[in-house]
Design goal:
Layout: H1 9-34, H2 39-58
Length: 102
């Protein structure tokens, strides 16, 4: 398990964005299953939380090359948004210390 306190600031931001996306997804499931009366309002709020986190992770820039970490281009599929272990442009590993961080 990653400890966000020990991560470099760029990865700490990435980590919390992924947590936000996961929390939004969990909130959507709870809104559908557990809150039938407040379903629409809760689902709308959860959708916003999920979207913000997902977009922040999806458009995360590589600390080494500056390219989009998970996507090669707009039409390359973008399927590996959360699952690519390294930058698709330069191969910089996820969670590694950025260049020049000392």
């Amino acid at each position: 398990m990653l400890d966000p306190k020990t991560l470099q600031p760029v990865w700490r931001s990435y980590y919390w964005s992924a947590v936000l996306a996961g929390a939004g997804l969990a909130m959507q499931v709870c809104a559908v299953l557990l809150l039938p009366r407040l379903g629409f309002v809760a689902l709308l709020g959860a959708g916003v939380v999920f979207s913000v986190g997902f977009l922040r992770v999806g458009f995360f820039r590589c600390p080494a090359c500056g390219g989009l970490f998970h996507q090669k281009g707009w039409f390359s599929g973008g399927v590996n948004v959360f699952f690519s272990p390294a930058c698709v442009h330069c191969g910089f590993p996820r969670w590694a210390d950025p260049p020049g961080s000392g």
